[in-house]
């Protein structure tokens, strides 16, 4: 199996680990890449098996719902040496749903597939793999629906965004959060306030 085929197979496996994701194909959504001197990137697209019918359903699939601000990030290929991941360390500004041990002001790591740059990684060819979902921006404020990574060792404490693009909302103003990347045929709001993040709980 050549490197490209190995990468695709590995990407499918990782996406299957993230809640609501499935194989590449169908009607994919692709993240927009920042231009970097016409640098070539390996592309990645996704289409999700599970489409959410409500905020309540998305919240039920998420172990953690928070308002958070990314503080730093690093790119790694720490699972199989083929797939790039961007790991963002985020500061929790508000806990909407989560275990008692998760506190406001604490730091957690959110793992996203792909990278805009591959600085420091030793792989041939040394090309970044385009993230299928826009990566978290440093200093921005987000409403995040998160799922435990399910990985071993130190990576067990990390999180994926539930449904990759489903659970990713960015601050539009002081109160409202707008979904970063819409999914066709999914019934989630384009924008919502933090107090509505668990949907109808009755």
CATH fold category name: OB fold (Dihydrolipoamide Acetyltransferase, E2P)
First-to-last CA distance: 52 Å
CATH class: Mainly Beta
Strand content: 25-35%
Largest sheet: 5 strands, mixed, barrel
Number of strands: 8
Radius of gyration: 16 Å
> Which segments are poorly predicted (pLDDT under 50) over 5 or more consecutive residues?
3-17, 21-41
Written account of the structure:
Strand 1 and strand 2 form a beta hairpin. 31% of the residues are buried. This protein has a single domain, classed as OB fold (Dihydrolipoamide Acetyltransferase, E2P). It is globular. It is mainly beta.
What is the compact description of this entry?
The chain has two helices and eight strands, in the order ααββββββββ. It has helices spanning 3-17, 55-60, and strands spanning 64-76, 85-97, 107-113, 142-148, 159-161, 168-171, 176-179, 191-193.
Keywords summarizing the entry:
202 residues, mainly beta, 8 strands, 10% helix
Provide the fold topology:
Elements: H1 3-17, H2 55-60, E1 64-76, E2 85-97, E3 107-113, E4 142-148, E5 159-161, E6 168-171, E7 176-179, E8 191-193
Parallel strand pairs: 3-5
Antiparallel strand pairs: 1-2, 1-4, 2-3, 4-5, 4-6, 6-7, 7-8
């Amino acid at each position: 199996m050549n490197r490209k085929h190995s990468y695709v197979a590995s990407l499918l496996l990782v996406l299957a680990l993230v809640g609501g994701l499935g194989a590449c194909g169908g009607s994919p959504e692709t993240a927009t890449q920042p231009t970097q001197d016409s640098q070539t990137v390996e592309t990645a697209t996704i289409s999700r098996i599970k489409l959410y019918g409500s905020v309540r359903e998305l919240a039920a699939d998420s172990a953690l719902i928070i308002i958070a601000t990314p503080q730093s990030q690093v790119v790694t290929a720490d699972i199989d040496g083929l797939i790039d991941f961007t790991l963002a360390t985020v500061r929790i500004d508000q806990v909407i749903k989560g275990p008692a041990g998760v506190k406001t002001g604490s730091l957690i790591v959110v793992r996203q597939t792909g990278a805009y740059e591959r600085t420091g990684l030793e792989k041939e060819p040394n090309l970044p793999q385009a993230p299928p979902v826009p990566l978290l921006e440093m200093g921005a404020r987000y409403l995040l629906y998160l799922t435990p990574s399910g990985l071993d060792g130190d990576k067990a404490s990390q999180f994926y965004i539930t449904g990759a693009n489903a659970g990713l909302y960015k601050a539009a103003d002081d109160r409202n959060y707008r979904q970063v990347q819409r999914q066709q045929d999914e019934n989630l709001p384009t924008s919502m306030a933090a107090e509505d993040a668990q949907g109808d709980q009755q």
